[in-house]
Amino acid sequence: MLPGFATPDWLQENHHLMKADLRKLAAALAEEYPDWTADGSDTQAFWCAVYDQAERWTWFLWLFEDRIFKIFGGVKGRRKQLVPRLLTAASDRARAIHPLARDEPEPDLIEDLETLWQANEHLLVAQVVWAMSCLNDADSRDVVSDWTAEPAIDDLIGDAVQHARFIDRPDRRHLLERLEREPTGPRTERLVERADTEYAALEKDVVCSWRKLQEYVAGHHDYAPALGELSIHVLKVEWLNAQLMEIDDVRESARARFRQAALRALLEQAMNDVPKAMEGDTALLVGTIATIGEDGLLPLVFPDREWEFCGELAEAFRAALVDPGEQELALRDASRRYADDPSAENRDALHAAMAAERDSPRSIEPASDILDRIVECLTALTKRFGRWTDEDEPPPLPGPRDRMRTLNHEISGLKAANREADERVAVLQAELDHAKEENDGLRREQHRLLERLAAIEGGERRCPTDGAAAPSLGSYEELPAWVSEHYSGRVALAGRAMRALKGAEFENVGLVGEAIHLLATTYWDMKTGGGLDLRDAFEGALRDLRLLETPSIRPGQQGKARDDFVIEWNQHRLTLDRHLKNRSGTRDPKRCFRLYFSWDNATQQVVIGHLPGHMKTPGT
Fold first, then answer.
1. What is the dihedral angle through the alpha carbons of 235, 238, 244, 246, rounded to the nearest 10 degrees?
2. What is the pLDDT of residue 359?
3. What pLDDT score was predicted for residue 156?
4. CA 65, CA 164: separation in Å to the nearest integer?
5. Cβ contacts of 103 within 8 Å, gap of 6 or more
6. Distance between CA atoms of 301 and 292, rounded to whole angstroms?
7. Cα separations (Å) of 414 from 407, 419, 561?
8. Between vectors from CA 333 to CA 331 and to CA 338, what angle results, nearest 5°?
9. Rounded to 5 degrees, what are φ and ψ at 168?
10. Residue 600's closest CA among 575, 579, 581?
């Protein structure tokens, strides 16, 4: 970013600031840049820090000059800026080479540079050209623009000037570079706010330029003589609009990185406040939170609506881990009442509350479900907007507009092709799943016909009744045949359940068999006969197996999230709205048990859609 002659010593020599000035400026720069190292007390360290920043940021020296002007005032600041000092040095050296006659007019900068060039003072010429090109306004750059094509000058300053050629606002370019490359932190939010201001200003410029273009077109009936000026108007509108699009992309990406970091900080803070009794069960949560900081879950855009949604989920996550549960609150209330009045009634209530709290230990399941929803939201955003990764190269500095337009067109084409491929794969997968479900339905229909024929020939096969021991289940491979043999007509396995068994890892196969036995007996009797006695019997059997029977879909869950629990069954759709689960408090597939099912009124049987682990749905 800097020419070879711009060493720390050279910067120090050409910037004459007092120690008080250095300390004041160093404090201002420390607030702006996270890796600023000098405090202004050591002059050499200060200019080394300036050099390091200038090597990193293309327009740091421009901003540095601007800060001197703002901090120290117009007159005092200009005397200490680099450009005026170099211009004075060039003029003095040109007068020494070619003294002026008594009546000879004072030469301008172009004449002084020509005098220095003829005297082989190429280094001083290069310094003035570089400073005027990179650190001053557009008019000053035009004055020295012809010198940048000189090979000897180009060898001395190189790319340091090329960065200035197509940029009208170096401060805006500097802002975009920082948004793209600076580590995420508190400064990022302030930079995004600056970008919002720049975006609003650019929008006004675009509207103003477009209005001028319209007025120009309306005022000319014959465009041939005015074609050149018309092209300039069109070019300005196009160029301003390209800058508007660029700053919008960069600020949204920076906002997304900042919001993701803030979201992860909220979740990590909640983990720090977890009660000690639950710390042993939170390893899976810690791992999931770590993935939120990885590139794969960092969307290029994090809109306000999704940010507010994730913020609410983060607060709910904290409450699920830290706030006392219903049983704990009841125990606290019973303890308080017993302390105020140690009567037999209050003592019995206290014992009942203690037993209830012991029988229903606090689980991390609600917090885990909330965390899954956050991951699902971030995954959906990466699919919608794309994802940002550390391996991505920073966008190139603006060059000729046609090259940037070509690159943007190619990127848009690739994204469109990728979306079409994803949609095609999704359609084919849906067709395949439908065919498998239809095939499974035909096999089940064939099995029922065979069962009915067997009943006519040799009597109806009896299903085990409530109270009978569950038939022994030895492995997942024999489960389909085991269900068909012992529970035909009461329990059926959907095609999705058959496929899930191929990757089953839950270690307690016996518990799986007992759970299916319970659905085929007590639960089946409850659904077909009804009554509180059967419901109490079912709940008692659940307690004996240390299982819970709960809804599998959260209240209010709609759209695609709900469709993930729908299966095709016997030419109609069933929603796997219930599931059995153990009290493991973990998602380790070897210890976590889930059995998703639905009651089919048409056939009066339990249809199992997935087992024995958590059902995988898009976004989980």
1. -100
2. 61
3. 79
4. 16
5. none
6. 15
7. 11, 9, 28
8. 95
9. -85, -30
10. 575
Cβ atoms 584, 591 nearer than 8 A:
yes
Helix (H) or strand (E) holding 595: strand 594-600
φ and ψ of 289, to 5 deg: -65, -35
Tokens 């395949």 map to which residue? 432
Tokens of 203: 């929008």
pLDDT at 400: 36
Q: In DSSP terms, which residues pair with 569 in a beta bridge?
A: 572
pLDDT recorded at residue 148? 74
Q: Which residue positions in the chain have pLDDT lower than 70?
A: 1, 55-81, 134-138, 158-171, 173, 181-186, 220-231, 233, 275-282, 293-296, 322-331, 353, 356-363, 388-419, 421-422, 425, 436-468, 555-562, 585, 617-620
Helix (H, G, I), strand (E, B) or coil at 341: coil
Under the phi-then-psi rule, with left for phi > 0, alpha for psi from -120 to 50, and beta for the rest, what region is 36?
beta
Positive/negative CA dihedral, 274, 275, 276, 277: negative
Spatial separation of the C-alpha atoms in residues 418 and 383, rounded to whole Å = 11
Crossing angle of helices 60-72 and 43-56, in 10° steps, is 130
CA 40 to chain centre: 38
Residues in contact with 440: Cβ distance below 8 Å, sequence separation at least 6, in sequence order: 494, 495, 498
What's the Rg (C-alpha) of the chain?
Answer: 37
pLDDT of residue 602: 82
The owner of tokens 């206290």 is: 350
The amino acid present at 247, given as its one-letter code, is I
CB 32, CB 71: distance < 8 Å: no
Among all chains, which residue has been given the structure tokens 């030895």? 474
Q: What type of residue sits at position 401?
A: R
The token duo for 393 is: 């190269």
Amino acid at 53: Q
Distance CA 413, CA 390 (A): 23
Cβ atoms within 10 Å of 248's Cβ, excluding its own: 16
What b/e readout covers 171-201, taking b as 16+ CB neighbours within 10 angstroms? ebbbbbbbbbebebeebbeebbeebeebeee
Q: What is the DSSP string of 563-582?
A: HTTEEEETTEEEE--EEEEE
Q: DSSP assignment of 9-32, as one string?
A: HHHHHH----HHHHHHHHHHHHHH
pLDDT at site 492:
93
What is the residue-wise DSSP string for 419-482?
A: HHHHHHHHHHHHHHHHHHHHHHHHHHHHHHHHHHHHHHHH-PPPPPPTTSPPPP---STTHHHH
How far apart CA 67 and CA 72 sit, in angstroms, is 8
Note the pLDDT of residue 402. 44
